[in-house]
């Protein structure tokens, strides 16, 4: 390696944090290089030290960090040769001249990385104010030009807007404008698309790639998503527990992964080409043992009869937009609009959609946490049908034991003040099941079922990892022996390797206990792995519902198709087709063909049966044959 | 924005009406009136009471009418600038209060400024140097400030002010200026005296504000948007002032609403100890002797200040925070 050719060289970097009980080594003897004009991806799971490295490059580590090693930055505009960033005084003049000007940075959360009190123009233009001598008018012109370059439809208007008036995708574009306005030699993108919807993610990736080649800069892309890496990166560096495991060109890394960790990581990602019945290989598999579990029953009979039947539910929320003079315009937002579906006994129905499409509201209606404006939900249990929306007394109590929920965030869904035993026996206490002794028995068999050690029974949630907490959440949902589990994004807060473990656990439990799932997720690959049938939601309506294979292989609705097209595969042979992406997002109806649009006529669309359980929302007048692409 | 201001001011009217009714009821609650307590006092001193004269006075000030009528008479009077008659002082209320009112406002205003000037830098320092010796030292001083009762501090300061600077003890000005019209010499005398009550009244508020600013700022410093300007290369101090400080200002602004009346009514004991010519001691005396017009006018004045304070803080918040200005109460 010729050090003169590298834009950035990290040599023997060690970062530790001094905390009570001895230092924590976040990064150990890391070496990596970034070539000019190339995209280098730094891949690792949460806590692997990848973000800490990026902070060290910009010299914005927390004060408590201890650093050793060298970070050599070879700025092409600086003829004096490489400079060591770590030697610069903290927050001194030298390092501040590099930040923002020669090295730009994009953060993960576009919601929180921008100040809510300053306009976009102020925050983007500030970079120029710091690093150049331009006049106010020049700064404004350059800023507006840059906002246009990153794809703001009306940059002049955006200049005076506040971040909270913009969507997540546009906020991230503003961040990109801010990082690139001084034309840096290196851009650090720290999980730039993790917080975004899949179609927005594809747009932002495309934008980053375009700008990167247009401005001929290098990029350090920090991510945990191998799909993003395969589509954007030239070089890959894999980091695990603060140590670099593997580094090299993306071709070599993906075609011939050498390190067992990387191999394991690749096997743990669900992808669309999995054969029916193929299992993900979790890095640490959890054995499922339901021998002693209460409510264990024979595996489901032929999946024919309907367990839950949802007909025509709608729910509107009114937002009160008050003007300055008490003028209240009531704006009703249809969160759920005439949604109908059945869940068959023993199946897993997947519910997919982007944020704000109403999928969580549907789950809340099923749990009777939200009362819909119209429609009915019928639960067909062992003791005959129960109308969920009007159930009272004994029927409601029965219902509460039969439908349980697994939540998204394993941290906030478990009370930090209760031990595992308290958490798992609480449902039993509420429903007056057994005495103290039999409850303890149940808790023990629940722990066994989710593969947690019996000794953890008296520990508190904070002493468990994210995956273990999610398993405790699942065990709590199983405590009363339910028929239907509603899983609302159960793995989206977890790392890839843990995600595979939880998905396999859910699959095994379903098989062993004959459970029925409603599996809600924004991740198509995950839903593809779990579900038997998949419903796609957009703008509060189910636009397409079909058996898994049909939906994945022959999607009909344009929304489904653009969702599928936007998923990045961890496979070099299947790159994202950036050309098919719509600038305004997948739910922009104007890009759909006329059969799928309502065009102002509220009653124009109705579910059309294409045969084989494949239903798509289209115009009543549309011919079935016309719909197929 | 203009429509919002007009709307906010319009809302103040019913608020003040409601408060005036409440004040009137509370003053009416104790049995008897000024004349009865006056008669009782005279009897206790062994003097005879001229009941006819008392009855005549009662009739003259409408005390024989039912309370509802008196309330409206009082209200109507206030609207015309007639705040009634102080029996205790045998003078119209406006004459009694007169000078004291603007002296009170002066002391309060200077105290607020003093509080902010001291609290801002210290709070910023404490937050950015958390758990350093400086932080601990300033926190310790602040806690002492909260813990020492104001009147005690007043006594201590008065003693030292007299020994070191020879300032006359107590008061807001030298005796000879008390009833004189405003003059250059009088203003100088006031300036000479005002710093003692300002320090005393301001100490507790300053200490509390330092703690709150520190806590608010610490919360903000953790947030991601503070990292963004640093990654742009902005100077750390400029970053601090432009971003987290601006966010932390919100609580300062909402504080104005409560700080005005708190300083005016909370300083009575200090004012008595220092014998300040402010309104506090007068209010207490008026309440004790059931001098109802005087007491009522005072309470109305306090209420008015509260409402104004809240108005100012609301407007300042809307100016400062675009989320309040532009999202205007929209809820999910």
Automatic annotation (TrEMBL), chain A:
This is ATP-binding component of a ABC transport system (Oligopeptide). GO terms for biological process: peptide transport; transmembrane transport. The keyword ATP-binding applies. The keyword RNA-binding does not apply. Signal peptide: none annotated. Gene3D superfamilies: P-loop containing nucleotide triphosphate hydrolases (3.40.50.300). It comes from Mesorhizobium alhagi CCNWXJ12-2. Belongs to the ABC transporter superfamily. It is a peripheral membrane protein.
TrEMBL record, chain B:
The chain crosses the membrane at residues 5-27, 101-124, 136-165, 194-213, 248-274, 294-320. Keywords: Cell membrane, Membrane, Transmembrane, Transmembrane helix, Transport. Coiled coil: none annotated. Pfam families: BPD_transp_1, BPD_transp_1_N. GO terms for cellular component: plasma membrane. InterPro entries: BPD_transp_1_N, MetI-like, MetI-like_sf. It comes from the Bacteria. Its main location: membrane. Residues 101-311 form the ABC transmembrane type-1 domain. It is found in: Cell membrane. Gene3D superfamilies: MetI-like (1.10.3720.10). It is a multi-pass membrane protein. GO terms for biological process: transmembrane transport. Belongs to the binding-protein-dependent transport system permease family. PANTHER family: INNER MEMBRANE ABC TRANSPORTER (PTHR30465), OLIGOPEPTIDE ABC TRANSPORTER, PERMEASE PROTEIN (PTHR30465:SF43). This is Oligopeptide ABC transporter, permease protein. The lineage of its organism: Bacteria, Pseudomonadati, Pseudomonadota, Alphaproteobacteria, Hyphomicrobiales.
């Amino acid at each position: 390696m010729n050090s003169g050719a590298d834009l950035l060289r990290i040599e023997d970097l060690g970062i530790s944090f001094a905390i009570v009980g001895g230092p924590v080594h976040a990064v150990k003897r890391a070496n990596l290089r970034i070539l000019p004009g190339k995209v280098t991806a730094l891949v690792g799971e949460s806590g692997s030290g990848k973000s800490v490295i990026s902070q060290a490059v910009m010299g914005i580590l927390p004060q408590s960090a201890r650093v050793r090693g060298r970070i050599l930055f070879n700025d092409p505009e600086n003829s004096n040769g490489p400079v060591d960033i770590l030697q610069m005084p903290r927050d001194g003049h030298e390092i501040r001249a590099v930040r923002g000007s020669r090295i730009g940075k994009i953060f993960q959360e576009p919601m929180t990385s921008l100040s809510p009190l300053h306009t976009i123009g102020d925050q983007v233009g500030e970079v120029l104010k710091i690093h150049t001598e331009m006049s106010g008018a020049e700064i404004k012109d350059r800023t507006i030009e840059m906002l246009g370059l990153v794809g703001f439809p009306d940059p002049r208007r955006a200049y005076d807007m506040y971040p909270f008036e913009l969507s997540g995708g546009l906020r991230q574009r503003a961040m990109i404008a801010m990082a690139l306005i001084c034309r840096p030699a290196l851009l650090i993108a720290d999980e730039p698309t993790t917080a975004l919807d899949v179609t927005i993610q594809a747009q932002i990736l495309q934008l980053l790639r375009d700008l990167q080649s247009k401005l001929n800069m290098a990029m350090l892309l920090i991510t945990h998503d191998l799909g993003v890496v395969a589509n954007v990166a030239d070089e890959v560096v894999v980091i695990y527990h603060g140590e670099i495991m593997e580094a090299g060109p993306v071709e070599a890394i993906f075609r011939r992964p050498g390190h067992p960790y990387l191999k394991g990581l690749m096997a743990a990602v669900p992808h669309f080409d999995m054969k029916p019945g193929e299992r993900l290989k979790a890095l640490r598999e959890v054995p499922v043992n339901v021998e002693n579990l209460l409510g264990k029953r024979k595996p489901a009979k032929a999946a024919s009869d309907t367990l839950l039947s949802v007909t025509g539910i709608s729910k509107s929320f009114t937002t009160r937009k008050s003007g300055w003079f008490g003028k209240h315009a009531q704006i009703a937002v249809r969160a759920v609009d005439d949604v109908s579906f059945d869940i068959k006994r023993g199946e897993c129905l997947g519910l997919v959609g982007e944020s704000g499409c109403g999928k969580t509201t549907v789950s809340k209606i099923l749990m009777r946490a939200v009362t819909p404006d119209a429609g009915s939900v019928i639960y067909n249990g062992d003791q005959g049908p129960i109308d969920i929306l009007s159930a009272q007394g004994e029927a409601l109590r029965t219902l509460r034991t039969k439908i349980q929920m697994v939540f998204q965030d394993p941290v906030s869904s478990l009370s930090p003040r209760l031990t595992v035993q308290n958490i798992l026996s609480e449902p039993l206490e509420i429903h007056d099941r057994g005495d103290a002794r039999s409850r303890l028995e149940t808790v023990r068999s629940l722990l066994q079922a989710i593969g947690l050690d019996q000794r953890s029974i008296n520990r508190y949630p904070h002493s468990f990892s994210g995956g273990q907490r999610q398993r405790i959440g699942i065990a709590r949902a199983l405590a009363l022996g339910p028929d239907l589990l509603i899983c609302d994004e159960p793995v989206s807060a977890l790392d890839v390797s843990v995600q595979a473990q939880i998905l396999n656990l859910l699959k095994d439990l379903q098989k062993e206990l004959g459970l029925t799932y409603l599996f809600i997720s924004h991740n198509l690959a995950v839903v593809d792995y779990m579900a038997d049938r998949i419903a796609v939601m957009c703008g509060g309506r189910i636009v397409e519902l079909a058996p898994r294979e049909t939906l994945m292989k022959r999607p009909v609705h344009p929304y489904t198709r653009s969702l599928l097209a936007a998923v990045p595969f961890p496979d070099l042979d299947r790159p994202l087709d950036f050309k098919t992406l719509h600038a305004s997002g997948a739910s922009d109806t104007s890009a759909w063909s006329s059969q799928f649009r309502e065009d102002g006529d509220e009653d124009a669309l109705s579910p059309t049966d294409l045969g084989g359980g494949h239903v798509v929302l289209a115009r009543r007048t549309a011919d079935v044959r016309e719909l197929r692409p | 924005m203009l429509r919002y201001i007009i709307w906010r001011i319009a809302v103040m009217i019913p608020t003040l009406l409601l408060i005036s009714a409440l004040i009137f009821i509370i003053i009416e609650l104790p049995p008897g009136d000024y004349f009865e307590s006056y008669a009782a006092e005279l009897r206790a001193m062994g003097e005879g009471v001229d009941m006819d004269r008392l009855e005549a006075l009662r009739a003259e000030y409408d005390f024989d009418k039912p309370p509802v009528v008196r309330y409206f008479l009082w209200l109507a009077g206030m609207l015309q600038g007639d705040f009634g008659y102080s029996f205790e002082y045998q003078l119209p209320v406006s004459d009694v209060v007169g000078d004291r009112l603007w002296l009170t406002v002066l002391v309060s205003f200077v105290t607020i400024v003093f509080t902010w000037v001291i609290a801002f830098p210290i709070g910023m320092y404490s937050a950015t140097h958390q758990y350093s010796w400086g932080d601990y030292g300033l926190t310790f001083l602040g806690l002492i400030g909260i813990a020492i009762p104001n009147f005690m501090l007043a006594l201590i300061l008065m003693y030292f002010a007299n020994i070191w600077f020879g300032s006359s003890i107590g008061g807001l000005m030298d005796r000879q200026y008390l009833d004189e019209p405003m003059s250059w010499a009088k203003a100088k005398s006031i300036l000479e005296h005002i710093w003692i009550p300002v320090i005393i009244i301001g100490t507790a508020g300053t200490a509390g504000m330092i703690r709150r600013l520190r806590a608010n700022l610490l919360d903000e410093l953790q947030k991601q948007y503070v990292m963004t300007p640093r990654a742009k290369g902005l100077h750390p101090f400029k970053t601090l002032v432009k971003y987290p400080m601006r966010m932390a200002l919100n609580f300062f602004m909402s504080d104005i609403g409560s700080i005005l009346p708190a300083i005016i009514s909370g300083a009575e004991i200090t004012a008595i100890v220092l014998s300040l010519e402010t309104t506090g001691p007068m209010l207490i005396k008026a309440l004790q002797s059931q001098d109802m017009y005087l007491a009522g006018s005072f309470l109305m004045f306090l209420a008015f200040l509260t409402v104004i304070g809240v108005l100012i803080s609301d407007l300042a918040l809307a100016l400062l925070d675009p989320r309040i200005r532009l999202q205007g109460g929209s809820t999910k």
